[in-house]
Amino acid sequence: MTTPAAVLVGKIGSLFWLRVEGKGCFQNSVHLKQAIKSVLERGMRSFAVDLERCPTMDSTFLGTLTGVALELKQVGGGTLTVINANARNQQLLNSLGLNHILEVDTAGEAWKEERRMAAAALAECEQAASLCKSQQAEHVLEAHQALTRANAENECRFRDVIEFLEKEVAQRTAS
Question: How distant, in Å, are the alpha carbons of 34, 43, 46, 68, 72 from that of 106?
């Protein structure tokens, strides 16, 4: 298995900056989720996800971002702004209806000053402990469920994946 792309993180004032260095995928989405969860617990509510060096994202990564955006709404607000998304990533966000859940800055207007500061201040995200197969399945299931909560049209896209993962999680839990 290949090493997942790094997720670089940094705090710039009241903004938590995350930059994906490579493909956004199920492997590094766990690190992303845990990094965000740790600063959410400390009251941080503004997030920038920088996709300048991220050529594409899989559905688990997209679902993880969606889950964070939905959680921000639940806890009373905040922002998750996707910046520097290439055409492929914009197409993925739009086709899943996530451009209505996530703030997507296509004009390069968001966080102008912070962009310069982020380039110098980012460090590699603390690596999370490896997940066992059942934890990984639960994470992937939660990400896909978030995609369907965000946009009802995604239910038919991910129905089979969700059903498979629900069975796998139930089976692993029973073992």
Answer: 26, 27, 18, 20, 21
